[in-house]
Amino acid sequence: MTHQLDALRQHSLVVADTGDLDAIKRYQPHDATTNPSLLLKAFDLPGYQTLIDEELAAVKAEVADPEARLEQSVDRLAVAKGAEIAKIIPGRISTEVAARLSFDKEASIRKAHELIELYDRRGVGRDRVLIKLAST
Fold this sequence. Notes:
By secondary structure, this protein is an alpha/beta fold. The chain has six helices and four strands; from the N terminus they run H-E-H-E-H-H-H-E-H-E.
């Protein structure tokens, strides 16, 4: 696999579509992309429970409304995972705005700005983040 991957690197940038940090370290992509289903799968892997617990506790302490708490939890977990990935790759990490916002342009843009702000707070610069917007 590595030989084929090296050949591919000669003609393109390799982008990992996973939340598995071990796979990202092993294959050394330039960029990485995440989406909710990949993150959910990655959080099932060993070693992420502390990160999950910390993020959920922080959201619980900061957000009173249960619906807002759920949304913030999803965003914070996605960005926490994305920030960990950004430590490994030289390029960009992409994060997806929830598809449920796809019919609401203003809400999608607002969510994109919120995700960028969460990355900023984790020390991941705007130039390293790509926001994916659902389109319909």
